[in-house]
Write a structure and sequence with these properties.
heterodimer, A: alpha+beta, 5 domains, 4-stranded antiparallel sheet, 29 helices, 11% strand, elongated, B: alpha/beta, Alkaline Phosphatase, subunit A, 8-stranded mixed sheet, 12 helices, 29% helix, globular
Chain lengths: 793, 470
């Protein structure tokens, strides 16, 4: 006996209560009716003109009159038929018929008024998805739109008589494709360079460039996969070892763009690093039979990879699809090292589950092999090309992420009919043909005219009224929203909760820069300010340019005359992205260092940049070749005389941050950019408000709508308010207080466009001639609240 | 504001966020929602396992004496009389005793033994009606009320949760797992106010922002929207719903009801009567919120492992402190609600995830491991003196108002160990059915999630304890 039930039994015994047993249609009556009556009276069978698919049909008068009289079993024909000794009369005519207990249950059910599950029918939906992929014949291209996706969708639109959606403009495309592939807003420099580019192939090239940014891609898609694989950096179960993370494995797999069949195999037949998915969450204490670790395995494999919901069938044969209790237990048994007894609705049946594969036509699991071998078989059966369900499920998820709605929708109901089967199978065969390369499928979708069309404007969220008329706008995910804030405001935290252990190839141990000052720095007067400069020439644009900077006690950095960053926390070296500020030709880096204290003390500045051009990386270190001059009050006098900076001998207090410098260097070597991303952080109140889920269950789509309580958080939540405060201060420092430049720049950054004259007018009225912290914060808040900002369309 | 109905409509249309949660199932079996006996509900949560023999179900009193066998301890507090002749409760709860004539006391609540006693897991069970883990995220009982009944006053969040920190405390991830609307979507989730004295900040413009600036910031958004070049999206459902939610939020942040969140506006002598600490302040806040039309409010003594009711040692001393923390505010809450004519339509429940015992872990036959942190067979020091084990088979639930009988006793536990419920046991499922019924929600109320039915009480089987209703 299941120990859990044993205990319940004890509770009942101890409390001397005998619960009035209500008749349970779903869990007791329906299976019994199905077992004995289905062959002749359910689905498309209605022998003797009698169907039991629905309660209405069951209650209908037929050749023999009424079969049931609810509330009165004694007067019901059904009771007579199931208890009759007359062979010609008895139902069911074959087999042993109903046993005593079953007869009693039917009687109790009739006496209770024959309750029925609302809306329930024994008739299965007539749609049965084919298992194998069918390579569609592509319709002829219309208007020269030859991309296979467009050929299919243009034909679809012709058939449904829906106007073809208009193309989006270049800037909207750049914003959409950046957010969709890397989860980041496009930088203004990239956007403007793109707009100026005359290359007719530039859309396709941008898609490729973005996909090649391994780090940005992996980091962004971590959020999607963490949801789908219920992995997180904190959560139920981790605390007591009932659950393990797969974060490192997952990041690495995305970074390397591991072929999806291999990716899935490593989760289904896991190694230690990827086992967290298969092992699910083990709770302390007893759990229901439908939530044991092996059953969780069956449910997770079914849902994640095949879009099959085995949750019903973990408890009893499903009423809504074909999956049976033995299917769920079959997969669970493949996983389990021990024999598992099948329980129906938490009641043990005495039957031992046999390892069994959901699609026997594809092959079977060899029960004689040890679990590890069996899981390899499960992996092979799941990922084999003949299993079209596997490839369809993932391409449908990708389509949903990129286009806003699944081809099969909702995305987990893969047994239901797609709105365009040819499109689904085209994408699935494309995945198989391209060796399960997910990036190629993403590129394929993004390169279609369909993806590059205007978003549908929907009057209602009623899915039953929906027809395809272009992509659907997507709400920014919590992570995208937070990253966008960090990008614009420069307020990303110094380090992420999850740090990917990616050594980017063989990154050589970086040489250290030299600490410098205008003299040996040992006895710098309190408050002394010194300017340092370095000029250099760039022959070609850089693909990355990051710097690690710190100064005991403060520094401010300008590049080519523009303020870029400052810090007064010398113990935390700053990682600064130089790239947006560099230009081809001559560049000048100017650092103002300031000493602190109240009496003469040690002072020094540290700067180290890594510039990447093509495959080459060049280091630029502070050293004695830099120039220095006294800069009273932080200003470089017009007639300043520059002299060579002096290397400052290492001192204990600067050595104390050596490891922090090293950490920052490692980040810099990893490619820089925005390393600390929301998808690598533990969830917080703001992210929860924006729809980041507790990853205790598998989540395959985030909520599309903003709720009132969430909107409260956006109105007065402490996290957002703090971001705005810090961000506004930083903008005022680094961008100066010219309101016109600020409005233009923020519109470009946040919305990827210039403000209209009217918008600019309104913004300028609010910011005033001299923007201050309050007006800048309010303007920022307003920008972030615009649906245009929060929606990707 | 326009009329209430219109506003409600707007509020509920603002999200059909419950992506997967469809409308109530319609079908052959019509679910009759019972007539509501109460419009608001306050759950006073004794987090950590309130020992019934130390509170509302006193047994033979054993004073502290060195060398006494622990097996002799049933209660460490003597009993006192209450306003109801046949009901005695523990010394230290004199104020609650004085309002017992407004209460129904259930002494036979039982919980399932989940094999290993884990507070957060039993609290999950109590708050959702479902034993974790579940294949779908189960909604909190407050989320059910928000979903089925909606807000009572449209500007007031329907589900407000007071006193529990969800960050930086032990088992906080586990607490978050049930402090949620689950598959209903966050529209129906809790507004969390961990510190009652800072609740006002949750409905005020951000710190440092004047109301004028708050309004003008909002006006700026309106102006920029009006000039948006993206006219083609004006009627877009998603855009509209986003703006409507922002409107609704702004409305609460500007509404007069937000004063209800500010307990410092209460007259000092009233404030002082409640102010036994965060729990007492929470009771005061709950009263103010219910006066202003809150639907469901939970106030907790707060669960922090090994603190408050979670006594694994020094039980007597800690419970003495807990008595002081809850006694006055609970009684005052009842009197205040009554005085304002609100008690009849407000259901107040005092409950906990399970009880405690000095000897027995779980209950008879349980395999749960003994979790007392001081062991020994006899009383050697005061740290041994108290009920340090978790007990699931006989606990007390106190209910006031909302159509329950006044001065009524339901069920009983044995007088000698095991102190199990021996009369009219009430399971969590049936207790929930009782609460839902009082609020006008059928225990069979059901929503579809992932093509499966999900019921207000386990499998729709909860039966209200009708005998406690007047």
């Amino acid at each position: 006996m299941n120990p859990f039930l044993k205990r319940i039994g004890l509770v009942l015994a101890a409390t001397t209560c005998s619960p009035a047993l209500a008749v349970d249609f779903v869990h007791e009556v329906a299976p019994l009716l199905k077992k004995h009556c289905a062959e002749c009276h359910m689905g498309n069978k209605h022998k003797g003109g009698f169907s039991m698919n629905t309660r209405e049909e069951l209650m209908k008068e037929n050749d023999d009159g009424f079969v049931l009289e609810p509330g009165n079993s004694a007067k019901s024909l059904m009771m007579h038929l199931i208890t009759s000794d007359d062979e010609d009369e008895r139902m069911p005519p074959k087999g042993d018929g109903l046993n005593e207990k079953e007869v009693a249950l039917v009687a109790a059910w009739i006496n209770a008024g024959a309750p029925w599950e609302p809306g329930f029918t024994f008739k299965q939906s007539s749609y049965e998805p084919p298992l194998r992929l069918q390579r569609p014949v592509l319709p002829a291209a219309q208007a020269g739109r030859s991309h296979p996706i467009d050929r299919i969708l243009d034909a679809h639109l012709s058939k449904t008589k829906v106007t073809r959606p208009a193309a989006i403009d270049e800037a909207a495309f750049v914003r959409r494709v950046h957010l969709d592939i890397t989860g980041l807003l496009p930088s203004v420099e990239i956007l403007q360079a793109y707009l100026a580019d005359k290359d007719p192939q530039k859309r396709g090239k941008l898609v490729q460039t973005l996909l090649q940014d391994k780090e940005a891609y992996a980091t962004h898609w971590m959020a999607f996969w963490n949801d789908l694989l219920r992995n997180d950096y904190a959560g139920t179960g981790y605390i007591d070892g009932g659950r393990t993370q797969i974060s490192q494995w997952l990041y690495r797999s995305l970074y390397d763009n591991k072929p999806y069949n291999q990716f899935a195999s490593e989760l289904i037949a896991p190694t230690k690093d990827s086992a967290g998915f298969a092992n699910g969450i083990k709770w302390r204490g007893a759990v229901s039979a439908g939530q044991t670790v092996p059953i969780q395995y069956a449910q997770s494999v079914g849902q994640t990879f095949l879009g099959i919901n085995l949750k019903c069938a973990s408890c009893h044969d499903s009423f809504t699809d074909q999956w049976k209790l033995t299917d769920s237990y079959g997969l669970a048994a493949a996983f389990s090292g021990e024999k598992i007894e099948i329980a129906r609705c938490d009641k043990p049946t005495g039957k031992i589950a046999e390892p069994y594969w959901l699609y026997p036509q594809l092959g079977k699991i060899d029960a004689s092999k040890p679990p590890q071998e069996r899981l390899k078989q499960v992996a092979a059966l799941t990922t084999m090309p003949e299993n079209g369900r596997f490839s369809r499920t993932i391409v449908n998820r990708l389509w949903h992420r990129l286009m806003g709605r699944g081809i099969v929708h909702p995305v987990d109901a893969m047994g239901t009919e797609p709105w365009n089967a040819a499109l689904l199978d085209h994408l699935a065969t494309y995945l198989v043909d391209h060796k399960y390369d997910l990036k190629q499928v993403i590129a394929h979708i993004c390169e279609s005219q369909a993806y590059q069309s205007k978003a549908q404007s929907l009057e209602t969220d009623d899915e039953s009224k929906w027809t395809y008329a272009g992509p659907r706008a997507k709400r920014m995910t919590a992570e995208e929203f937070v990253d966008a804030l960090w990008q614009i405001l420069g307020t990303a935290p110094g380090k992420s909760d999850f740090v990917p252990a990616i050594s980017t190839g063989a990154a050589p141990a970086l040489s250290r820069a030299t600490w410098i000052w205008i003299n040996d720095g040992a006895q710098s007067p309190a408050g002394e300010t010194v300017a340092f400069r370095k000029t250099f020439t760039l022959a070609a644009p850089v693909s990355q340019a990051m710097a690690v900077i710190t100064c005991d006690n403060e520094f401010s950095l300008s590049i080519n005359g523009k303020a870029v960053a400052k810090s007064d926390d010398w113990m935390s070296p700053r990682l600064v992205d130089l790239k947006p500020h560099l230009k081809n030709g001559a560049n000048e880096i100017l650092l103002i260092g300031k000493n602190g204290g109240s009496a003469p003390n040690g002072a020094a500045l540290y700067f180290q940049a890594r510039l990447k051009q093509g495959k080459e990386a060049v280091m630029m270190n502070s050293d004695a070749t830099w120039q220095a001059t006294a800069a009273p009050n932080g200003n470089v006098p017009a007639n300043a005389t520059w002299q060579n900076a002096v290397a400052v001998p290492a001192q204990n207090n600067w050595d104390s941050i050596a490891d922090k410098i090293q950490q920052a260097q490692a980040q810099m070597a990893g490619g820089g950019g925005l390393r600390v991303r929301a998808s690598l952080m533990k969830s917080d109140l703001l992210m929860r408000s924006l729809g980041r889920p507790n990853r205790e269950q598998i989540v395959t789509s985030r909520p599309n709508d903003l709720t009132t309580l969430e909107a409260m958080d956006l109105n007065n939540g402490a996290i957002l308010a703090a971001q705005l405060e810090k961000g506004a201060a930083r903008l005022l420092e680094t961008q100066g207080a010219d309101p016109r430049t600020m409005v233009d720049s923020l519109y470009w950054q946040a919305l990827s466009r210039a403000p209209s004259a009217e918008e600019k007018q309104i913004a300028l009225e609010v910011l005033g001639a001299r923007p201050n912290a309050d007006t800048v914060q309010d303007f920022l808040w307003t920008l972030f609240m615009l649906p245009e900002f929060q929606l990707i369309r | 504001m326009n009329n209430r109905r219109e506003f409600l409509k707007a509020l509920s249309a603002s999200t059909t966020a419950a992506m997967m949660a469809r409308a109530p199932r319609l079908g052959a079996e019509v679910i009759h929602q019972p007539a509501a006996k109460a419009d608001s509900c306050i759950l006073l949560w004794m987090a950590g396992g309130m020992a019934a023999p130390e509170t509302f179900d006193p047994k033979r009193y054993q004073p502290f004496e060195k060398g006494v066998p622990i097996s002799k301890i049933l209660s460490t507090f003597p009993s006192i009389r209450t306003a109801v002749d046949n009901i005695s409760i523990c010394k230290g709860l004199e104020n609650i005793a004085s309002v017992m004539d407004r209460a129904t006391l259930i002494r036979s609540a039982v919980q399932e033994d989940l094999g290993s006693i884990l507070h957060s897991r039993h609290q999950y069970h109590w708050h959702t009606g479902y034993v974790p883990p579940q294949t779908v995220a189960a909604p909190h009982i407050g989320a059910w009320m928000a979903k089925v009944l909606g807000p009572k006053n449209p500007v007031m969040p329907a589900f407000i949760n007071i006193g529990q920190r969800l960050e930086g405390v032990g088992e906080s991830e586990e607490l978050k797992a049930f402090t949620t609307a689950g598959f209903f979507g966050s529209e129906f989730g809790p507004m969390n106010l961990p510190y009652p004295d800072q609740a006002a900040a949750a409905v005020r413009p951000p710190k440092g922002m004047t109301p004028e600036r708050f309004q003008s910031r909002r006006a700026l958004l309106t102006k920029l929207l009006a000039k948006s070049p993206h006219r083609e999206y004006m009627s877009d459902h998603q855009q509209e719903s986003m703006l409507r939610s922002l409107d609704n939020a702004h409305r609460l942040l500007s509404a007069k009801e937000r004063e209800a969140f500010d307990i410092t506006l209460e007259p000092k002598e009233v404030y002082d009567r409640y102010n036994t600490g965060r729990f007492g302040q929470g009771c005061l806040l709950a009263r103010r919120l219910v006066e202003n039309g809150a639907r469901f409010v939970e106030v907790t003594t707060e669960y922090v492992p090994f603190f408050q009711w979670d006594t694994h040692k020094d039980g007597h001393a800690v419970v003495e402190k807990m008595h002081k923390e809850i006694d006055m505010p609970i009684a005052q809450l009842i009197r205040d609600l009554e005085e304002r004519g609100l008690l009849d339509r407000t259901l107040v429940i005092v409950a906990s995830e399970f009880s405690r015992d000095a000897m027995m872990e779980g209950g008879p036959g349980s395999t749960a491991k003994d979790q007392a942190t001081v062991k020994g067979d006899t009383l050697e020091s005061t740290s041994h003196y108290g009920l340090h084990r978790h007990f699931t088979q006989g606990s007390s639930v106190l209910m006031f108002g909302g159509g329950v009988k006044k001065g009524h006793l339901h069920g009983a536990t044995a007088d000698e160990r095991p102190l199990v419920a021996i009369k009219d046991p009430v399971t969590i499922t049936d207790l929930h059915a009782t609460i839902f019924t009082a609020m006008g929600i059928s225990p069979k109320t059901v929503y579809d999630v992932e093509q499966r039915p999900f019921y207000a009480t386990l499998d729709g089987k909860g039966k209200a304890v009708d005998s406690i209703f007047a």
